[in-house]
Design goal:
Blueprint (H helix, E strand, L loop, with lengths): L1 H12 L16 E4 L2 E5 L12 H14 L14 H14 L3 E5 L2 H12 L5 E5 L4 H10 L2 E5 L4 H10 L5 E6 L11 H10 L3 E5 L14 H4 L8 E5 L9 E5 L1 H10 L1 H4 L6 H16 L1 H20 L11 E7 L1 H13 L2 E2 L2 E2 L9 E6 L6 H17 L4
Parallel strand pairs: 2-11, 4-5, 4-6, 6-7, 7-8
Antiparallel strand pairs: 1-2, 3-9, 8-9, 10-13, 12-13
The structure holds 4'-deoxy-4'-aminopyridoxal-5'-phosphate (PMP).
The site of 4'-deoxy-4'-aminopyridoxal-5'-phosphate (PMP) has 14 residues, from helix 4.
């Protein structure tokens, strides 16, 4: 098909062609790619739990007891006691009335937004929201009003311009490619003042932010002030699956209305068992996230000292902005040759001319390893004229 060939040639010419890097072993801070051991600096496995023995044992035990496949969607033949336990545990962890599991965070966002909004609704959406929020908004058929990234003046202006009683503000809690935290205190104040519902996707805050690691709502010291909270078990919690937490009635409503929940096979028992176990680890091992966030602060400061352009971040995500997609790819390749894996993030994932290395830290990275990364980045950055 010619249009496909033309498209592929075009993205190759523009440095936007994407390829897989296949891992031949478990994911930890070191991974094996084609028999090479490389230091991973780009994973969402923030607490380095993907290869944790406790989680692997939990999965094995669940497989022995329940088998492997779940056999059906949740409302037909795919609900196990484990699903019930996990939903209760997540609600408890997030300090909300109830929780509902989805197969991914992506499905949680599209399922929830489309269950709530239709063409009578107005959705106020941050310009840098995750693709799954954008897709959910589009699929819903609602009026979408995009406000400038974290810009409360712009949001306020737009709220005034679009009156109505069916309105929702939807935002990432932690922005996945920028690492900054949404100003939830101000967003919630505006929402309350104007009688608007709020929805926060805390995929990257869950397990990382807040005294108990429950995410950005705790980080801001809010309780039950966000109407709909989305999260994922696939990042700090080292498992798979998305979830929504909120009131009992919200959760019951989603069980009946969210199509990505209703029409998809339930998560397998092993996956659920891993999530149950990793929630305990997050609760009990606070030292992991303290170290993670301390390292992230230190590391981004050192990058700036070297002359790199780094966005301000209070999370484990450190965006090193390069600009051109080609240069970002070259920097990533040079680092890979030096045994360091950091993916180049390019359009359409990020806006044109803001291609970047999205560096993410893990709780287990040592200062020595991070210093080695800084030395390598300095060398490669100078070779490419970035610094
Ligand atoms: N929301 C945000 C902010 C994300 O970054 C991601 C993952 N990239 C998702 C949702 C989707 O989560 P999942 O990977 O579990 O589908």
């Amino acid at each position: 098909m010619r249009f496909i060939d033309e498209y592929l040639k075009d993205i190759k010419d523009r440095g936007l062609y994407r390829e897989f890097k296949f891992f031949s072993g478990p994911q930890s801070k070191y991974i094996s790619i084609r028999d090479r051991k490389v230091l991973l600096m780009a994973s969402n496995n923030y607490l380095d739990l993907c290869n944790d023995d406790r989680l692997k044992e939990a999965a094995e035990a669940a497989i022995r007891t329940y088998g492997v496949g779940s056999g059906g969607s949740r409302l037909t033949t795919g609900s196990y006691e484990l699903h019930d336990q996990l939903e209760k545990k997540i609600a408890d962890f997030k300090n909300t009335e109830a929780a509902i599991l989805f197969n991914t965070g992506y499905m949680a966002n599209i399922g929830t937004i489309t269950a709530i909004a239709d063409k009578e609704w107005t959705l106020f959406s941050d310009a840098l929201n995750h693709a799954s929020i954008i897709d959910g908004c589009r699929l819903s058929g609602a009026k979408i009003v995009v406000y400038k990234h974290c810009d409360m003046e712009d949001l306020q202006k737009k709220i005034k311009a679009y009156e109505g009683n069916k309105r929702l503000i939807v935002t990432d809690g932690v922005f996945s490619m920028d690492g900054d935290i949404a100003p939830l205190d101000k967003i919630i104040a505006l929402a309350k003042e104007n009688n608007i519902l709020t929805m926060v996707d805390d995929a990257h805050g869950t397990g990382v932010l807040g005294d108990n690691g429950t995410g950005c709502v705790e980080y801001f010291n809010f309780k039950e002030q966000v109407d709909i909270q989305v999260g994922t078990l696939s990042k700090a919690l080292a498992s798979e699956g998305g979830f929504v937490v909120g009131s009992k009635s919200l959760v019951t409503y989603l069980r009946h209305k969210a199509r990505s929940f209703i029409y998809s096979t339930a998560l397998s028992p092993a996956t659920i068992a891993v999530s149950l176990c990793s929630l305990d680890i997050v609760k009990n091992e606070k030292n992991k996230r303290i170290r993670l966030l301390e390292n992230a602060q230190w590391f981004q400061g050192e990058l700036r000292k070297l002359g790199f352009r780094v966005l301000e971040s209070n999370t484990a995500i450190i965006p090193l902005i390069i600009g051109s997609a080609e240069k970002a790819t070259k920097l990533s390749e040079k680092l890979f040759k030096k045994g360091i894996f950091i993916t180049a993030i390019r359009p359409p994932t990020v806006p044109e001319d803001t291609s970047r290395l999205r560096i993410t830290l893990m709780a287990t990275h040592s200062r020595e390893e991070l210093k080695h990364v800084l030395d390598s980045l300095k060398e490669a950055g100078m070779e490419l004229g970035i610094i």
